Amino acid sequence: MTNRQKMLIFINIMITCIASSMLATALTTALPPIMEDFGLTIATGQWLTSGYSLAMGIMMPLTAFLITRFPTKRLYVTAIGLFIAGLLICVLAPSFPVMMVGRILQASGNGILTSMAQVILLTVFPEDKRGTIMGWYGLSVGAAPVIAPTLAGVLVDSFGWQMIFYIDAAIMAVSFVFALIVFRDVLETKKQKFDVSSFVMSAVAFGGVTLGIGNLSGQGITNMANWVILAVGVIVFVVFVRRQIHLKEPFLEMRIVKDYKFALSLAGSMLLYLVMMGSSIIMPLYVQTVMGYSATVSGLVTLPGSLAMAVVSPFAGKIYDKLGMKKLFVAGAVCMLLSNIGMFLITMETSIWIAAFYNVIRCISIGCLMMPLVTWGVSGFDSYKTAHGTALLTSLRTIAGAVGSAVFSGIMTAVGAASAASYGSGAQMHGLNTAFLAMSFATAVLLLIAVFLVKEKKEPWR
Questions:
Q1: Residue 126 gets which letter from DSSP?
Q2: In the chain, pLDDT over 90 holds for what percent of residues?
Q3: DSSP structure string for 160-201
Q4: Span 370-389, mean pLDDT?
Q5: 56: CB partners within 8 A, 6+ apart
Q6: Residue 213 neighbours by CB under 8 Å, 6+ apart
Q7: pLDDT range class, residue 145, cuts 50, 70, 90
Q8: 212-248 pLDDT per residue, tens
Q9: Which of the residues 62, 83, 321, 395 could staple to 109 if both were Cys, CB 3.0 to 4.6 A apart?
Q10: Distance of alpha carbon 202 from its chain centroid, rounded?
Q11: What is the H or E stretch that residue 240 is in?
Q12: What is the pLDDT of residue 435?
């Protein structure tokens, strides 16, 4: 492939990524009017987001098989087609169940596109350019969700919530035509029998864990049905892993975890998402619930951090290409730890803009680590291992993010309620401080991995 062909494919992936990433956060703004139009309760309406996450959790492990079984171009445009079909169904949906079908189609298409994008970029570009390219890819992942809620608010107020899906469908249609013109079959394929048993196990395992944790976060830890779903998911996951290890041609290649560098990348990505998703849930609660400010102020407090992450991501890729992972990993973990300790120390008298500053530091850390960890973990893999590695990493870090959302928001709520008698009006702040202290411990583990387990050289274990 020529450099021009590679860049055209990269641009196409960026367009697709922006459209899919925007919808993720835009829907949170559109959810209240959608619930009003369909006459939904909050519990039912939340399925538009939790059901999407569940479908993504089921789809992610399947993508490794799809990428290695079907030609790149055909699979990519099919995934875009699924996403567009889902968008149009949501626009035209006469009822909530039909709209849920649209959301599941979107999740299916997005699951394939997310995994394919990373595998394609890591395959077609040489190793000394991968960090930079993945950094720019991370920019699209980080920037689109930043502007989406504001844009969605304007669209909902001016034209109705359907306009969000229309615009997203229009962008995806451009990407579809563009992909038909510029895409090539860039990934190796091989004939492989579809393992129905493994797929069913992966769906129950990853879907059960994702759904169970997500529901515990939204419905509370006293709901026993969610604990049963989570337990079934964990048990089936153990059985699934054992099956994959003993299969000659596994549905999802779990043996790559034996690769030392990939294992560190996997652990680092999961810890990063654990803290990242926990803080993303708690920061709006801090501004609105604890400090009593409006949703608009909450958006302004978190906006500088999101913009900082979008700006830092491409530069982090360049740093990785030049210096390797060690320095970037340590710097990112230190920034994350400092920001969490800072939030642990704030009080009711602390300005919310101090908290906004700590959030900027945290987001800079995320920008330094998110895409470089993926690039570093699969560097040296062939396309087969890269497909399985990215599918596994994306699935497990998504679960880690769900755990972070549930655990840290749960800590904040439980500690706040338990300390109401002792702290009075400051009980919620005490709960928040405790949650960020717990995040600090998790980040300290991330820093220990960076300092003691990551080596200076890029390829010390291959």
A1: -
A2: 32
A3: -THHHHHHHHHHHHHHHHHHHHH----S--------HHHHHH
A4: 86
A5: 107, 110, 111, 210, 398
A6: 230, 399, 402, 403, 405, 406
A7: low
A8: 776 766 666 677 888 888 899 999 999 999 999 988 8
A9: 83
A10: 19
A11: helix 224-246
A12: 93
Q: Is the pLDDT of residue 149 over 70?
A: no
| Contact predicate 345/358, CB 8 Å | no
Q: Could you tell me if 447 and 262 are in contact, meaning their C-beta atoms sit under 8 angstroms apart?
A: no
CA distances from residue 93 to 96, 166, 383 in whole angstroms, order as listed: 7, 13, 39
Q: How far apart, in whole angstroms, are the C-alpha atoms of residue 56 and residue 76?
A: 16
Checking if the pLDDT of 315 tops 80, the result is yes
Tracing tokens 């099919």 back to the chain, one arrives at: 78
How far is Cα 380 from Cα 98, in angstroms, rounded to an integer? 44
CA angle, residues 168, 284, 371, in degrees to nearest 5: 55
Measured distance CA(462)–CA(458) in Å, rounded? 10
Q: Is the dihedral of CA 404, 410, 416, 418 positive or negative?
A: negative
> CA torsion angle for 349, 350, 352, 358 (degrees, to 10)?
-160
What's the one-letter identity of residue 269?
S
Q: What is the DSSP string of 24-47?
A: HHHHHHHHHHHHHHHT--HHHHTH
DSSP 288: I
- Cα maximum dimension of the chain: 68
State which amino acid sits at residue 285. L
Amino acid occupying residue 317: G
- In angstroms, rounded to a whole number, what is the distance separating the alpha carbons of residues 57 and 293? 34
